[in-house]
Specification:
7 helices, 12 strands, alpha+beta, six-stranded mixed sheet, four-stranded antiparallel sheet
Amino acid sequence: MRLLCVMAALVLITAQTLRAEEIVLGLSQAEVSITTNFDGSEILVYGAVKRDAPPPEDGKLGVIVTVSGPSKPVLVRRKERRFGIWINTDAVEVDRAPSYYAVVTSAPLDELLTRVEDLRHKISIPRAIRSVGAPMSIDNAALFTEALIRIRTRNDQYQVIEEGVKLDEDTLFRAAVRLPAALTEGTYATRIFLTRGGEVVAKYDTGIDVRKVGMERWLFNLSRENAFLYGLMSLVIAIGAGLGASAVFTALRR
């Protein structure tokens, strides 16, 4: 009985420790509108650490901000050069991969987070991607996931910005997250983690709503609801642009 009481007391102390630091968060904008001239956006994530007691002395406070776009399956193909041409050979379908993913930290990520905590909360880019259904005939299926990360990193769809979170006096923090021009509609899950000694001690979840508006929304709906009219309109625009360019070149030659 005494052992049970001691264990209960330890659980209570642990729970109180986890609640000793809480996150108060703000966003510069909770909605992003995609228009015809949209070329990207920057979201400012800012907040404060609320405490009921002086900060613990065991471990420096770290802040990690992640922003994740809608996830969906992705087919990754491998190309090989055969008979003088590049052709698709093997293919692996990644079960779920975010269309956009950013990790912004107050210090190098491996200093703020242990592998166990990364596995538990799925914070780093490789952990945010789920790929378990590779065919048995594929050797080194992990290379396909690495290729996906490499391609999307090059296209600015995946970002790791270490020391991008500014932390003042272990209380106030702020970070800028860049959203590229090519965004998928949906809710972008935004998570903020506080860490000490490599372990997560507090977490806050919110979201950023990304939607097409105006002409962009009208064209998107038209392509889904009336594909024939959308295709016909695209053809007319293409013919008109070609005739216009031809007229301009003819006038320049004279």
